[in-house]
Amino acid sequence: MAQKYYQKEIETMPVEEMKKLQSEKLVKQVKHVYDNVEYYRNLMDEKGVKPEDIKGIDDLYKLPFLSKADLRDAYPYGLLAKPLSECVRIQSTSGTTGRRVVAFYTQHDVDLWEDCCARAIVAAGGTKEDVCQVAYGYGLFTGGPGLNGGSHKVGCLTLPMSSGNTERQIQFMTDLKATILCCTPSYAAYIGESLKEQGYKPEDIPLKAGIFGAEPWTEEMRQSIQNTLGIKAYDIYGLTETSGPGVSFECSEQTGMHVNEDHFIAEIIDPDTGEVLPEGSKGELVFTSLDKEAFPLLRYRTRDICVLSRKKCSCGRTLIKMAKPMGRTDDMLIIRGVNVFPSQIETVLLKEGYEPNYQIVVDRVNNNDTFEVNVEMTADQFTDKVGDILSMEKSLAEAMKTMLGINPKVHLVAPKSIARSEGKAVRVIDKRKLI
Ligand code: ADP
Ligand code: ZN
Question: Is 257:250 a contact under the CB 8 Å cutoff?
Answer without folding.
Answer: yes
